[in-house]
Design a protein that fits this description.
- Helix content is about 20%, strand content about 50%.
Length: about 80
């Protein structure tokens, strides 16, 4: 929601590029975004080119796909190979 020049609420999509602190990325940050209501949560590994998509379903994330070199988003209606 836009109010007084600020945006409030969670984004619809988050793309998490894994850092050297994988536990923080895969557990802490993913859990925070899940509780905040982010609809699509992507985990991207720049080393392996692997992408995982978790979709919010009933308040918790469910793994939708786990692919190498493919990005696809239902919310964005977008798919591309890299």
């Amino acid at each position: 929601m836009h109010l007084d020049g600020y945006l409030y609420g969670a984004p619809d999509i988050v793309i998490e590029v894994l850092s050297s602190d994988r536990k923080r990325d895969l557990v802490l940050k993913k859990g925070l975004d899940e509780r905040a209501g982010v609809k699509e949560y992507f985990i991207a590994d720049s080393v392996t080119r692997k992408i995982q998509l978790y979709s919010l379903n009933g308040g918790s994330y469910k793994l939708v796909y786990d692919e190498t070199g493919l990005f696809k988003s239902t919310l964005l209606n977008l798919e591309f190979v890299f």
